[in-house]
Amino acid sequence: MKNYRSSESDSRCVDSILWAFVFLFVSALPNQILAQTEVRLRAETRSSARLPIELKPSQLRDQATKELGQRIVDILDNDLWTSSVVAAYQTEESRANPDALRLELALSRPTGPIRFAVQTKVSLVQKKLTLEGQLLDSATNKTLDQKIYRGCPENLRLLVHALADDIVHSLTGEKGIAKSRIAFTAATGDSKEIFVMEFDGSNLRQATSLKSLNLTPAWSNDGREIVFTSYQRGNPDLFVLDLIPGRMSYLIKDNGLHSAPAWSPDGKKIAFVSTKDGNAEIYVMEIYTKALQRLTQHPAIDASPSWSPTGRELVFTSDRLGNPQLFVMDAEGTNLRRLPIDLSYNDSPAWSPRGDKIAFVSRTPNGFDIFVYDLGTQAVAQLTSKAGSNEDPCWSPDGYRLAFSSTRDGRSEIYSMLWDGTDVRRLTYKGACTSPAWSLNSRPAEEFLCKE
Amino acid sequence: MFRFHNAKFKSLQTMAAKSTLLIMAALTLLVFSGCPSSKKMTETPISANEPEASTVTTAPEPAVPAYQRPTEEAAPAESAVPFALQNVYFEFDRYDLTPEALQILADNARVLKAHPEARVVIEGHCDERGTVEYNLALGDKRAKAAKDYLVSLGVTPSQVSTISYGKERPIDMNHSEEAWSRNRRAEFARR
Is A185 found in the same domain as A149? Predict the structure, then answer.
């Protein structure tokens, strides 16, 4: 039997190493800005550097009410601010109830003129809603882009989300995150169920009612399915839940543990951890053929696989050196190498959809905190500190934000923050919420349809 | 699925001459592919695995009755050993067995050998620190470490199965060193 050394003793030196890293990271920044477009774009996520646009009051047609028009502008306002690259400003007459977002807005009003405006038009005829969005050049009033969204009052939020994402895409080439959702697990009595909410915590709903342990959810690329570990039959097996009919099917059931699934970027494979051959190893399954490939061969624990956005590599946790550390391997299991992160207990890696960073958790005197490793510079930055235990980081589909679980307000809740640790927002108020998983920016077509 | 084939091949090798091996293998493949294909692919390996698993685990049994027979014959001795199994505890982030754990498992092995009809599941548990995913794997390691040692002491492998609950089923809900040490355990449950 192997004797693995405990890592508890050497966490004292973490702080000093960290400060050294933070210093290196900061002093390396100006060069990076010149050298990499990606980093320069990230600098623009500060609200002062966002692209400002003006939100005009919605034009009302047919049976559309003033309330409906204001709701559209308010949802759009919130969506665009959460995009990280656009700053939205409502015109004076449409600023009915100033809330936290508008306070932030008031503090960071742009100094120069606002060059773009969004004009929405809404009509309501026999419970059918038509939303038109126009992107205008403020100086010339010329239409730069225009789109129409059809639905009904019940899916108004989703229609506005789609408009917000299209505006962000037209202006910046980024995809936006307004249509994305976050799945997570929360305790309900003795069991844990999967819950789903929108990117900002709204529209929370329970996705499973299995009255068993249901853990480690992960999204399909089309935002339609969630793969997760369920003890429904007693053994930890992998299930796939199709959210549209709400139907579950087995992905794999075998002897042993099956957990930590991760959908590949091309949508064709799922990486996961299994002990079916006796030890915790990482496997990849082709979804349609169910063909299995084993990627790791080591008597230690291999866990928590996360795909690179190209699908060519995976980052995972292994305790093969005596305590949990992060390793990268090619998608075939070859070319294994350890990430040179000088912290003693690192786990839960999440590869940014931009490809340049890996978020992870590391043990600190307070519990766990979230860190980011930069693949280009090998710099490590600590994003959370002295605010409860912070775990399970996962990236927003645009790579600007991270969702995570934290005990900073007592019980474990889901939060999101910007990639640099600022702009922390609490998303849940349930208690015992863990394992957030952020979907891509896509929704199944059925969700845009009106219910008869 | 791979396991099914390997096990099949192994048993075939002992039973059949090597020249007929290929034909037999081809036949089993034909039979296998002849299974109702309308059924989900996921379900076939399970139904196929169960008989395999039992033949694999019963294979070493000819050796086991040597241990079992004396206890079976000594019926009064059996009832003299009460069916009580103790938990085994672990250090933080470790799955090797402490000297104390080895002692407890030796006692548990005596109980299990005195009750060969009893089937138990060893549940591997962790404290609340660390991720859900890592702790699931760690719990699995702990349960298997306990099982492996019991088997090395002569307990029939099929008597003992394992499952990991990671950090999902703490017995002490507090957030102290004491609570954590109580939660890092392999627990025995009778099936």
Answer: no
Q: Give A327-336 contacts, CB < 8 A, sequence gap 24+.
A: A329/A295, A329/A296, A331/A284, A331/A295, A331/A307, A332/A293, A332/A295, A333/A282, A333/A293, A333/A294, A333/A295, A333/A296, A333/A297
Q: Which long-range contacts (CB under 8 A, 24 or more apart) does A25-29 make?
A: A25/A374, A25/A377, A25/A379, A25/A380, A25/A381, A28/A377, A28/A379
pLDDT of residue A88: 85
Does residue A96 surpass a pLDDT of 60? no
Are B133 and A434 within 8 A, CB to CB? no
Q: Indicate the number of domains in chain A.
A: 2
Residue A138: give the domain boundaries: 47-172
* Chain A residues lying within 8 Å of B148, measured CB to CB: 1
Whether residue A236 is found in the same domain as residue A272? yes
Q: In terms of domains, do B55 and B74 share one?
A: no
Q: Could you say which of A216, A254, A292 has the minimum Cβ distance to residue B133?
A: A216
In a domain, A103, yes or no: yes
Q: How many CB pairs under 8 A join A and B?
A: 119
- CA gyration radius, chain B: 21
Residue A294 and residue A271 share a domain: yes
Flag whether A442 is in a domain.
yes
* Domain membership of residue B82 as a residue range: 66-190
Q: Are residues A216 and A319 in the same domain?
A: yes
CA distance A122 to A150: 10
Please determine, for residue A311, whether its predicted confidence score (pLDDT) is greater than 80.
Answer: yes
pLDDT at A423: 86
Say if residue A370 is in the same domain as residue A240: yes
Going by their DSSP bridges, the two strands B185-190 and B120-125 should be labelled as antiparallel
The CATH number linked to A88 is: 3.40.50.10070
When divided into structural domains, chain B yields a total of: 2
For residue range B4-22, what is the model confidence (pLDDT) as tens digits? 344 444 444 444 444 444 4
Q: How many residues does chain A have?
A: 452
Distance from CA of A324 to the nearest CA of B (A): 9
Residue A366: its pLDDT value, please?
Answer: 79
CA distance B70 to chain A (A): 31
Same domain assignment for residues B144 and B175? yes
Instruction: Please judge whether A236 and B164 are an interchain contact, meaning their C-beta atoms are less than 8 angstroms apart.
Output: yes
Q: pLDDT, tens digit, for every residue of A240-262?
A: 999 999 899 999 988 899 999 99
Q: Would you tell me which residues 107-166 of chain B have a C-beta closer than 8 angstroms to some C-beta of chain A? A: 129-134, 136-138, 140-141, 144-145, 148, 163-166
Which of B41, B97, B133 lies nearest to residue A348, judging by beta carbons? B133
| Residue A239 within any structural domain of the chain | yes
pLDDT in tens, A158-203: 999 999 999 999 998 888 999 999 999 999 999 999 999 999 999 9
Residue A428 has pLDDT above 80, yes or no: yes
Q: Is residue A217 a contact partner of residue A185, using CB atoms and an 8 Å limit?
A: yes
